[in-house]
């Protein structure tokens, strides 16, 4: 969670314009950014010495030691995370406050998608899994059949947005600075710059990170997690929250399998251990393998979003 990593401020391309526009309409993307407050509890229950190094520190957190001393688990407390200086109870309170505010913005975004009849997909992965390459390929293959728009998230640069725009699709870059994920408030600002179409799809390429993006609802219909065969079969077990939050996993870079010892069956089994309802596809953004099934998955859901919006308008 971001009480750990200390997310910084974000900038959205055209933010000044977006801010001016936001003051003239009734969507409430407040500019308080108070979810990045930093509270500091200093619970000091006891001290102990680490004799294998030359310092000692107070224990204000929960962790467990494995029976043989081979594992120190800082995720064992009620918060599931460790933040120096904060008690587990205080971390839980802060996280609830952050997520409740995010969820309010997410509801606004979701309502906009529903009214427009557009399908929003939150694309998440670790860095280097091939998210942007996959989107470039998908947009080129789908743009004659679907209206596509993209929100790009990175800490710095507009490189990925420029790659997307080269396909002809509109793209807004969000730079998160020190932040490690997109939140619903940032996405709300970007939406003010995009013209979503009924039956179209909005791809939201999140910051490369398998931890924090799992916790933040952006108002999307589905999280799609991308994993590449150059990573490890046990990634779903190492980062279970992300695979538990996703509805679809794309195992990418399948064209490299002849050159690797990657066990596809073991990887898919590990993913299903975390999330038995997770749908999985083996794909390659380079060769196109498996992408027809991905496109069919998208088009079916985009058609449903359009139909649902039309039915809602008809009353």
Automatic annotation (TrEMBL):
Which GO biological process annotations does it have? protein maturation
What GO terms are given for molecular function? GTP binding; GTPase activity; nickel cation binding; zinc ion binding
What residue spans carry the Basic and acidic residues bias annotation? 13-25, 34-44, 59-68
Q: Which InterPro entries match?
A: CobW/HypB/UreG_nucleotide-bd, Hyd_mat_HypB, P-loop_NTPase
List, alphabetically, the Pfam families matched. Answer: cobW (PF02492)
The UniProt record lists the CobW/HypB/UreG nucleotide-binding domain at 121-280
Question: Where would you find the membrane-spanning parts of this chain?
Answer: none
This protein's source sits in the domain of life called Bacteria
Biased composition of type Basic residues is found at 45-58
Protein keywords? GTP-binding, Hydrolase, Metal-binding, Nickel, Nucleotide-binding, Zinc
Sequence segments annotated as region (Disordered): 12-72
Q: Which family does it belong to?
A: Belongs to the SIMIBI class G3E GTPase family. HypB/HupM subfamily.
Instruction: Specify the protein name.
Output: Hydrogenase maturation factor HypB
Question: What organism does this protein naturally occur in?
Answer: Methylocystis parvus
């Amino acid at each position: 969670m971001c009480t750990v990593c200390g997310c910084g401020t974000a900038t959205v391309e055209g933010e000044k314009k977006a801010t001016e526009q936001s003051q003239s309409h009734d969507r409430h993307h407040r500019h308080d950014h108070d979810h990045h407050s930093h509270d500091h509890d200093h619970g000091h229950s006891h001290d102990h010495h680490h004799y294998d190094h030359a310092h000692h520190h107070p224990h204000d957190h929960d962790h467990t030691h494995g029976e043989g001393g081979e594992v120190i688990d800082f995720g064992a407390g009620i918060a599931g995370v460790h933040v120096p200086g904060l008690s587990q109870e205080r971390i839980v309170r802060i996280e609830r406050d952050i997520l409740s505010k995010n969820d309010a913005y997410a509801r606004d975004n979701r309502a906009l998608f529903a009214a427009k009849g557009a399908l929003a997909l939150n694309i998440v992965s670790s860095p280097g899994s091939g998210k942007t390459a996959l989107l470039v390929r998908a947009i080129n293959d789908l743009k004659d059949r679907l209206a596509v728009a993209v929100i790009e998230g990175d800490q710095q640069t507009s490189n990925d947005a420029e790659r997307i725009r080269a396909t002809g699709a509109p793209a807004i870059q969000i730079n998160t600075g020190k932040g490690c994920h997109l939140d619903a408030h940032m996405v709300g600002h970007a939406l003010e710059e995009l013209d979503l179409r009924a039956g179209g799809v909005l791809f939201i390429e999140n910051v490369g990170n398998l931890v924090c993006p799992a916790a933040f609802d952006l108002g999307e219909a589905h999280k799609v997690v991308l994993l590449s065969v150059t990573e490890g079969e046990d990634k779903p077990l190492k980062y279970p929250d992300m695979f538990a939050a996703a509805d679809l996993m794309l195992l990418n870079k399948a064209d490299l399998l002849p050159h690797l010892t990657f066990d596809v069956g073991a990887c898919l089994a590990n993913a299903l251990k975390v999330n038995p309802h997770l749908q999985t596809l083996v794909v390659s953004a380079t060769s196109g393998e498996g992408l027809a099934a991905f496109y069919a998955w998208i088009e079916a859901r985009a058609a449903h979003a359009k139909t649902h919006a039309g039915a809602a308008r008809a009353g």
